[in-house]
Amino acid sequence: MLPAVLAPMVQHPLSALSGTLRRGEQTKIVLPPVIGHRGAAGCAPENTLAGFRKAAALGCRWVEFDVRLTSDNQPVLLHDNRLERTTDGRGKANASSFAAIRRHDAGSWFHPSFAGERVPKLAEALALLVELGLGANVELKAARGRAAETGALVSSLLVSYWPDDPAQLLISSFQPGALAAARDHAPSIARGLLFHRLPKNWLRIAAKLGCATIHAEHQRLSPAVVSEIREAGYPLLAYTVNDRARAQTLLDWGVTSVFSDVPDRLQGLARGGGNCPVMMADRASAATPRQGSMW
Ligand code: G3P
Ligand code: MG
Predict the structure, then answer these.
(1) Does any domain span residue 292?
(2) Ligand 1: which atom is nearest the Cα of residue 237?
(3) Whose CA is closest to atom 10 on ligand 1?
(4) Cys bridge to 94: 55, 130, 143, 255, which one at CB 3.0-4.6 A?
(5) Burial bucket for residue 261 (CB in 10 Å: 0-12, 13-18, 19+)
(6) The pLDDT of residue 15 is above 90
(7) 78-128 pLDDT, tens per residue?
């Protein structure tokens, strides 16, 4: 049994294609135990179309990837705001136009066989994921002061471009402002709240943002923390896990999914006893959040 998350569904612009989406209905989000991280970042250049093809070839059912805005507001797949690490370009993504970023090679740094790979724009990535049948965890990365803009733009694009299956889509972010904008612009898409280390008030933050899932760095997790999250009714996704034994330990503790750069190394892993309870994505109305700082 795969764990399922119930997310409220609203009318989708492309619902004529499916004919099944109606306001007030719910859909199940089915999360696999292993999700390809930045595509399959240990096996192909991260956040590229080649990486998604690789993840699919390795048997992934879902991939995670990072999205940020260029200076001309094009959502592109890049983890860092700086271009140097993953392209042959220089400078900041949020200060470069899409056309300028697109000229850079995003594959050679990883291996010469990936020469010519480009930084994808979100719409291209979504089209390929649909073609490959992969689920998508879209992580919002916003430059300073652009969290709301990033969340609004990306989530609106997802509503327009993700065809008819919200069961295969999850937005996540470390940035509450980006998640709040996603909640307001695309409430039907489930949201996940990312933490490096779980703060004491995590539940209040998750409730305020109407998040369906919690995502946390695996090295900061303990059985007690995993239990706390699971007992509160949230599936827990842990990043970035490249060791098979560690992944199995986390799954045995009750972690729902692990993000891995090397999904092939984790093939065949299964969850331990517990499965995720069914839950609502939009918990915003169930909480009375404190005012002020979210963190
Ligand atoms: O979404 C999980 C993980 O990708 C978060 O960290 O820095 O790899 O985007 P990062
Ligand atoms: Mg990420």
Answers:
(1) no
(2) 2
(3) 79
(4) 143
(5) buried
(6) no
(7) 999 999 999 999 999 999 999 999 999 999 999 999 999 999 999 999 999
Alpha carbon of 221 to those of 18, 63, 216, 218: distances in Å? 40, 22, 8, 5
Is the CB–ligand 1 distance for residue 68 below 6 Å? Answer: no
For residue 127 the two structure tokens come to: 């089209």
Distance separating alpha carbons of residues 240 and 262, to the nearest angstrom: 10
233 part of a folded domain: yes
Q: How many domains does the chain have?
A: 1
What pLDDT band is residue 26 in, cutting at 50, 70 and 90?
low
Assigned domain for 294 exists: no
DSSP conformation class of 226: H
Q: Which one is predicted more confidently, 35 or 289? A: 35
Q: Are 284 and 209 in contact (CB under 8 A)?
A: yes
User: What is the span of the domain harbouring residue 238?
Assistant: 4-286
Measured between alpha carbons, how far is 201 from 289 in angstroms, rounded to an integer? 10
Q: Which CATH number covers residue 184?
A: 3.20.20.190
Distance CA 262, CA 76 (A): 23
Q: State both tokens at 173.
A: 């972010």
pTM for the complete prediction?
0.87
Nearest ligand, CA of residue 172?
1
Q: What is the DSSP string of 22-71?
A: -TT-EEEEE--SEEETTTTTTTS-TTSHHHHHHHHHTT-SEEEEEEEE-T
Q: Which of 37, 62, 170, 258 maximizes ligand 1 atoms within 8 Å of its Cβ, making it the mutation to test the pocket?
A: 37
Predicted pLDDT of residue 163? 75
215 tagged catalytic: no
Which tens digit of pLDDT belongs to each residue from 27-64? Answer: 578 899 999 999 999 999 999 999 999 999 999 999 99
Give me the residues paired with residue 30 across strands: 4
Q: Residues with Cβ < 8 Å from 250, sequence gap 6 or more?
A: 218, 221, 226, 238, 241, 258
- Ligand 1 atom with the shortest distance to the CA of 259: 2
